[in-house]
Amino acid sequence: MTTLPHDAGNAGSVTVEYSPDGRVATITIDRAAKLNALTLAMLDELRTVCVSIGRSAAAVVVVRTAGDRVFSVGADINHFSQLDSVAMWRSWVATGHAAFDAVEALPQPSVSVVDGLAYGGGLELALSTDFRVFASNARVALPETGLGTIPGWGGTQRLPALVGEHRAKDMILTRRVLDAPEALDWGIATRLAADGALDAEVDGLITQLLGSAPIAMQLAKQSLRAVAGGTPASISEALASGVAFATRDSAEGLAAFRDKRPPNFQNL
């Protein structure tokens, strides 16, 4: 079987840093010298980091990449182009799915910060988060058919779920590139920052999210996923509401409402 090339000088890294109060976990994908192209090792690191964050007390997760020109160009072509079909099936595609599924499965709301190009697997990574804040210079595309392959890390599933089958075909079959306003109009971007205001837009969203009870947000996110998978809302909402109502944060939220004051949620 074909072995994966070793690129020690530009291996890249995936790290997590927590805010001083532990409420915000920031994942940073850093392989800026290679336009944040993703390797198997980086995908494995991403999955491991997500599992760790999911078990933490963080309330919000932010996904960033290094540099300011490219969010990520996706899969490292030099890596996957040397694989045979079995390695592609067994390792490359499976590892990418495991990593991005781990991002999507984070119990906390997740925010990707898209600055510059998000192509191929870079866009598929962004699609696996709950919110996508775009800089004005962002561009997105799934150009894999131009390389004789297809989006292999969830693009054919997550993109049509957002934009519909016909628009997904337009992007995937024609390799159409969307600029930031088009991405917002299509529903790929959830927020679009003004020039030079990306960090402020992200900070504003984080502040809004931190104003909600963390456990309630996680239960709501879980209920939304369950309904999307076919579970009746009457069942998922009943179960989630029952759990939420039993938390200390629920009692605090109701007390704060009665007292006409901001709630002090403790993630309990």
Keyword list:
six-stranded mixed beta sheet, 47% helix, alpha/beta, four-stranded mixed beta sheet
Q: Could you tell me how far the N terminus lies from the C terminus, measured between alpha carbons in angstroms?
A: 50 Å
Mean pLDDT: 92
What composes the largest sheet? 6 strands, mixed
Helices and strands, in order, run as EEHEEHHEEHEEHHEHEHHHH
Q: Return Rg in Å.
A: 19 Å
Query: Which secondary-structure class do the elements indicate?
Result: alpha/beta
As a percent range, the share of helical residues equals: 40-55%
Q: Please work out how many helical segments DSSP would assign.
A: 11
What strand line-up does the widest sheet have? 1-2-3-5-7-10
Unreliable stretches covering 5 or more consecutive residues: 1-9
**Beta-strand percent range:** 15-25%
Instruction: Give a count of the beta strands, DSSP E runs of length 2 or more.
Output: 10
Overall, the morphology is globular
Structure description:
The longest helix has 20 residues, at 85-104. Helix 1 packs parallel to helix 3 (85-104). This protein has helices spanning 40-54, 77-80, 85-104, 121-127, 155-163, 165-174, 180-186, 198-210, 214-228, 233-245, 248-259; strands spanning 13-18, 24-30, 60-65, 70-72, 110-114, 117-119, 131-134, 139-141, 178-179, 191-192. Mean pLDDT is 92; it is low at 1-9. It is globular. The protein contains 11 helices and 10 strands. Strand 1 and strand 2 (24-30) form a beta hairpin. The strands form 2 sheets. The chain has a 6-stranded mixed beta sheet with strand order 1-2-3-5-7-10, with helices on both faces. Strands 4-6-8-9 form a 4-stranded mixed beta sheet. The chain is α/β, with parallel strands linked by helices.
